[in-house]
């Protein structure tokens, strides 16, 4: 398995960074500093090297430097399976206030169609404090989390999910008409069913593989207990033992039968856009939502670590891990297990935290950068370098 590493990260007009770059060597990267200094902003920039809106789900306009011209750029020199490559993404200054600029993507300064092309060079997984309530929160959050899991394996997945959402919106608009054209409805439902089954099939396969990874022995052992996961949705269950074409036909029939009900509701009331990810605490045989706050955190970390291992197995590349404000809430035993786990995975890991003391155990084998007001500095004792 290839260990993928960012060797240099450069930010221009991104969040609170007007211009900054950071060079790193082997080993974990630790970013410390006061709240609001820009630690999360730095790893958010890395998350924009994947499809989607990054770890905060921000719009392109929201991440632009407040005092800039509306443009921003993120560039990373990445060392991986295909050697050294420079990946860059960002937007140019908007042509007009009400006209958003398209996101541009380049590999070695050559334009590519989308950020999905970066998947040949890098895969990224993250864990942030906003995910702590995942198991007890709304199904939409678990569905979004699930799609991030799938996306780390298949970079085209977000495109399919977006296409499915557009198709559902088109169907809903047709149903707003008191007498919608049945031929148009048949056509849009045909497309919707194809997209729905494609999305559901990949989710099903990812969950199946991930459940196997969760059941396997790990370097982090009991510190992060195993979860049991399953998809709650008739389509996903049917795909487990029925051909995709049969499931498509069944969903088209469901859509046709439900036209009056969906028209009254103003939305489509059946389909994979409503699927939930069920998670159980395996050792206690209880829903993860019923576990304590600490147990839920441990389950989530174990799930993310197992997923990182699965991504490495399936793609041949150990994914980058972005762990935002994670160690402050772990006891010494779990901190040690986390460090052992990321070492065993072979991933480059970026961690943030406000308290340098929380990283005392890993500091001797890591690179610690101090972040202050969008500035990056490095103690002189370390070989790594930071530039502003």
Largest sheet: number of strands, sense, barrel closure: 7 strands, antiparallel
Kindly report the name of the CATH homologous superfamily of the domain at 1-122 and 319-388.
Answer: P-loop containing nucleotide triphosphate hydrolases
Instruction: Please state the overall shape, judged from the principal axes of the Cα atoms.
Output: globular
Major sheet: order of its strands?
8-7-6-5-2-3-18
The CATH level-2 architecture of the domain at 1-122 and 319-388 is identified as 3-Layer(aba) Sandwich
Strand proportion: 15-25%
What is the tally of helical segments?
9
| Number of strand elements | 18
- CATH class placement of the domain at 1-122 and 319-388: Alpha Beta
Distance between the termini: 34 Å
Unreliable residue stretches: none
Q: What fraction, in percent, of the residue positions are helical? A: 25-40%
Q: What is the CA-atom radius of gyration, in angstroms? A: 22 Å
CATH names the topology of the domain at 1-122 and 319-388 as Rossmann fold
- The helix/strand series, from N terminus to C terminus, equals EEEEHEEEEEHHHEHHHEEHEEHEEEE
- Assembly type: single chain
Structural class: alpha/beta
- In round numbers, the mean pLDDT is 92
